[in-house]
Specification:
It comes from Kribbella sandramycini. With about 475 residues, this protein is α/β, with parallel strands linked by helices. It has two domains: about 280 residues, 3-Layer(bba) Sandwich (FAD/NAD(P)-binding domain), CATH 3.50.50.60; about 170 residues, FAD/NAD(P)-binding domain (3-Layer(bba) Sandwich). About 30% of the residues lie in helices and about 20% in strands. Strand 13 and strand 14 form a beta hairpin.
Length: about 475
């Protein structure tokens, strides 16, 4: 029996593995169903894929990267950073590629795992599959004759040069790949259900001299990280006090006005909700691409496919050679929740019934020795996922090292208190008052994604381990 098994070798799983080794826990494995590490930065290879968090912030605090070549790093550079960091911290021997979790059952004293590589048993199970993993593919009636794929499963064997391409969705991924497609396709039809706020992106190439400075004087990069952190926290004030977002909205409107000459198109692209209610998007090239003569924006959902035709809900009908979905991910409907079962045989998905709940977004009543990374109600619109992850890992490592031979199960009362107070605090934030429909809300209408307070509060809350909030029992002898 192993001490710990981690599911997923993305940023979360690798971070957990590094922290386990640093704590002296070495009897663990990281199961990754793919053949390489990287998580979302392995899967998303669409043209223009990049981070929308500043590079200096988008890294482990203990492993800064002085060699980022852009202020907002691209996909391949982030994936390489994760690979290099895993190697540098001795994680590679723990990685088991091509091993998929099929089922996990709590036996009363351990987790019994069924995997594609055979059975495993572990005292502690850590899920690190992330909310940006499983693509969301809307069910659209009819069939389409040509290639159809999701942005996170980009089919690089399909040449789009000179083709008529339909894009469904205008979220974070579409904002990045549409400008890359526009110059090479014959025509581009963008189906937009909701106009999005798009802000200018302060991206730039990082000169060799600046990178040398960061390598030679690490404090320089720490100062940059601190400045970017402060800037993001100032933006976070607007999430908690939506009236402040009017200032940022003015910048968004100016960006739109400067980028799109046509008043008619500007009207179609002007959002009707408060900025921050949905994920904030940044791009310097998205609006100019939509204003190009070979691009048409259709402000409607897609109702059906019919051979080579894409039919909008408003009756629009266009001919296309290929369809690309930019429709995001199953953020709250996590597939792994259906694989994890408590002692009564009830799955985590059945326990949640469509509305994920966890104490500090990490542990769930009824599921002992289970820790979920980047779990429910931990998402913010203004900080790095690495910051959230590291706060969770501090909590988990305290639990594991202070009670190394014990079974820990969060009590119902602390979990209920966290969920209730979090949702109550969310009511006055832009996520709830901004007049939008977003992926932050689960099928029951609850906001199961966002955290309503500042990043310092999040870190202080998550890193605090309170033993009385857990039922702690010794592990029975095997």
């Amino acid at each position: 029996m192993m001490d710990v098994v981690i599911i997923g070798a993305g940023a979360s799983g690798l971070g957990a593995a590094i922290r386990l080794r640093q704590a002296g826990i070495t009897d663990f494995a990281v199961l990754e169903k793919s053949q390489s590490l990287g998580g979302t930065w392995r899967d998303n290879t669409y043209p223009g894929c990049a981070c929308d968090v500043p590079s200096a912030l988008y890294s482990y605090s203990f492993a800064p990267n002085p060699s980022w070549t852009r202020a907002f790093a691209g996909q391949e550079e982030i994936r390489q950073y994760l690979a290099d960091t895993a190697s540098a911290y001795g994680v590679d021997p723990h990685l088991r590629f091509g091993v998929e979790l099929l089922r996990a059952d709590w036996s009363g004293s351990s987790w019994v795992l069924e995997t594609s590589d055979g059975p495993l048993e572990t005292r502690v199970l850590i899920t690190a599959t992330g909310p940006w993993h499983e693509p969301l593919m809307p069910a659209i009636p009819g069939s389409f004759d040509g290639p159809v794929f999701h942005s996170s499963r980009w089919d690089h064997s399909v040449s789009l040069a000179g083709k008529r391409v339909a894009v469904i969705g205008t979220g974070a991924s579409a904002v990045q790949f549409i400008p890359e497609l526009q110059p090479v396709v014959d025509s581009l039809h963008v189906f937009q259900r909701t106009a999005q706020w798009v802000l200018p992106k302060p991206d730039h190439y990082v000169p060799h001299l600046e990178r040398w400075l960061f390598r030679r004087f690490p404090i320089a990069q720490r100062l940059l990280r601190g400045a970017e952190y402060l800037g993001m926290e100032l933006l976070g004030l607007g999430f908690r006090h939506p009236r402040l977002m009017r200032v940022v909205e003015a910048a968004g409107r100016l960006h739109l006005r400067r980028s799109v000459p046509s008043a008619t198109l500007r009207s179609v692209l002007t959002p009707a909700y408060t900025l921050g209610c949905k994920r904030i998007l940044m791009s310097n090239t998205y609006y100019p691409a939509l204003a190009a003569p070979n691009v048409a924006v259709h402000p409607t959902a897609v109702a059906a496919f019919d051979g080579s035709a894409v039919i909008g809900a408003d009756g629009t009908k266009i001919e296309a050679d290929a369809v690309i979905f930019g429709t995001g991910f199953k953020i709250l409907d996590l597939p792994i929740a259906g694989l994890i079962h408590n002692h009564a045989g009830t799955s985590l998905a059945e326990t949640w019934q469509g509305s994920p709940q966890a104490y500090l977004g990490t542990t769930v009543t009824g599921y002992p020795n289970l820790y979920n990374l980047l779990g429910p109600n931990l998402g913010t619109g203004h900080t790095s996922a690495f910051t959230i992850l590291e706060a969770q890992l501090a909590h988990i490592l305290t639990a594991l090292t202070s009670h190394p031979d014990s079974i820990l199960e969060v009590r119902p009362e602390p979990q209920a208190h966290f969920v209730t107070t979090t949702r109550a605090a969310l009511r006055t934030t832009v996520y709830e008052t901004g007049n939008c429909t977003s992926y932050y809300h689960d099928p029951t209408g609850q906001n199961s994604f966002n955290y309503p307070h500042s990043t310092p509060t999040l870190r202080r809350t998550l890193t605090t381990f309170t033993p009385t909030h857990y039922k702690i029992t010794p592990t029975p002898p095997s």
